[in-house]
Write a structure and sequence with these properties.
248 residues, four-stranded antiparallel beta sheet, 8 helices, 12 strands, globular, ABC transporter ATP-binding protein, ATP-binding
């Protein structure tokens, strides 16, 4: 599925190295979690994978199902099945949520040579998934994320993921700002997306999210690379002991 080898990423026009030789493999069907101290480069990894401007790849390779991800434009990566759930989802005034989502969904389908989803099927699917996530119907009628609480924005991200059905999901601190009830709802949506054909990379500071989305592997990102790895129980150890042993 996703294979990262010796990845180096810099910012500030290449003057500031952030990742300095990160290697990681997430097999198809598995959920991996990335934890680590502030400033370790967790969000940098997510942006590098999805092609955000300002993050310069200076060395290394990234492949998704054997295809060179770094050779693709951001929209090509999305069409290939990569989805990023942002830590701070953007508001887009004037753009209706449903119009945005239908346009994005059908653009990806077209790029993959698939038929567009017709309006009746789109609306039926959207309403059913929104109900699963306990989203009020009014949320689908607003401009994208405008006037939403933090929890509502995160639910909207999960809703988009469920509609788009990506093959590889990167979640950048999706638990940030969520209360317990919202966290459970978001986690339920993510767990419904677990599949033998889908991989996930969950970036988080805190172990609490991993009580609800139990990962197959947990990795510590420190000093520009993966400093240690373990199973789901490893996250609980990190919660108790912190990252000092890996951040020196």
């Amino acid at each position: 599925m996703l294979k990262i080898n010796n990845l180096h990423v810099s910012v500030d026009d290449g003057q500031k190295p952030i990742l300095t030789g990160l290697s990681l493999e997430v097999p198809k069907g598995e959920v991996h979690a990335i934890m680590g101290p502030n400033g370790a480069g967790k969000s940098t990894l997510s942006y590098a994978l999805t092609g955000r401007d300002g993050y310069e790849i200076t060395d290394g390779t990234v492949t998704l199902d054997g295809k060179d991800l770094l050779d693709m434009e951001p929209e090509e990566r999305a069409a290939a099945g990569v989805f990023l759930s942002f830590q701070y989802p953007l508001e887009i005034p004037g753009v209706p949520t449903m119009t945005f989502l239908k346009t994005a969904l059908n653009a990806q389908r077209k790029a993959r040579g698939e038929e567009e989803m017709k309006a009746p099927e789109f609306l039926k699917t959207a309403r059913a998934l929104a109900a699963e996530l306990k989203m009020k119907p009014e949320m689908l009628k607003r401009p994208l994320n405008v006037g939403f609480s933090g929890g509502e924005k995160k639910r909207m991200e999960i809703f988009q993921m469920m509609m788009m059905e990506p093959s590889f999901i990167v979640m950048d601190e999706t638990d940030s700002g969520l209360d317990v009830d919202a966290l459970r709802i978001v986690a339920d949506g993510v767990n419904k997306l677990r599949s033998p054909d889908r991989g996930m990379l969950i970036i988080t500071h805190y172990q609490r999210l991993l009580d609800y989305i139990v990962p197959d592997r947990v990795h510590v990102l420190a000093n520009g690379g993966i400093a240690a790895s373990g199973d789901a129980e490893f996250a609980k150890k990190l919660e108790r002991e912190g990252y000092d042993a890996y951040a020196a």
